[in-house]
Amino acid sequence: MIKIGRILDVGFGVLTLLLVSLMITGYQGMKRDAFFSAYDNYMGEVRGGDWLEEGTAEVLLQEGIHLLNQSDYSKKFQDYPSEKANVLYVIGQAELYQENYLQAEKYLLEAARCNQESADIYRDLAVAQAYCGFGTDARDTMEKAVECGLSKEDAKYIEAALAYQNGENQTAYDLGTEASKSEDTEIAKRAALIAVRASEQLGNTDECVGFVTALSEKAEGNLKVFWLRKAGELYMKLHRQNQDDSKAVENAIYCYQSIQNSGLAQLTDLYNLAFLYDEEGRFSECKQLLLSMRKQYPEEYEIAIRLSYINYRMENDKAVRLRDYTLVKQYYEEAEKICRSKEISISEDVNMVQMKYIIEELQKQGWLAQ
Hints:
Blueprint: H1 2-48, H2 56-69, H3 71-79, H4 81-97, H5 101-114, H6 119-132, H7 135-147, H8 152-165, H9 169-179, H10 185-202, H11 205-218, H12 221-241, H13 246-262, H14 267-279, H15 283-296, H16 301-316, H17 326-341, H18 350-364
Helix pairs in contact: 1-2, 1-4, 2-4, 4-5, 4-6, 5-6, 6-7, 6-8, 8-9, 8-10, 9-10, 10-11, 11-12, 12-13, 13-14, 14-15, 15-16, 16-17, 17-18
């Protein structure tokens, strides 16, 4: 009986250990499943996101850092270096996109330590190092990228970044335009942007705007809007350089109207379009645009103050007996109210000060009640 009891005790002990082992294995499996679920959700967001959409880079940056720092997953990332490299790469790209080059270099360097066979990681690391002024490191990193199968266009992209950082603007422009032929749309955009900046440094605004306009005509969606916006900026620059160049204003208006019609316009785009309408003396279109902006952005005092000014311009164009400056004062007071609610100093805003002076003069002349 004693032997049988001992056998039973041993059997129960083994069974208990087996159950505990199964429980631990099951728990670890659940943790692994939760880790991969969180990782897959994040990478799915990366694949489905559009870097050109406002705020996308910052969102992916913060979510990536949060994922890496979660206590439940930090150990798992040590077990799965490839997945860790992917998250670090996205964070590095986000920093690079926002031109935080030192931070980008830090994350991409760590990504390269986790995955030493990715040409993409080495490519972006080399570009970050180039912009940080680490030329020697950038070239060493580019060699590693080439060993991993870096394409010719991507190599030219790195060389363009190095040339631009060194002030070799013509070389940067030539290499940037070549690299902009990359099949990777993001790399093509970054390379083209180097070419644009180099061209601006060279003072070749005409050539530059032609290059950008051609890019906008080939692109679609957010990328098309990106290049239209850049073309609009360049046409406005040409107008500032030559006030008599009415063609530049017309082209700039076309760019910003196209952006507006795309449904992807940012507030700055609409302000630029309103400014251009004003410059061209198209006051009615300017006013209608500002009124639609006022509905969309009711807390923007600058819209109200511009409405005050454009109404002043429009009334001045009327016969004396038909002038009515009531709306000039009304929109100024609206802007003033928004400023006070947001604790914005009116005396530090040139447009507010100017319109206040105009209204005081209109009151002195009897056009408006005191």
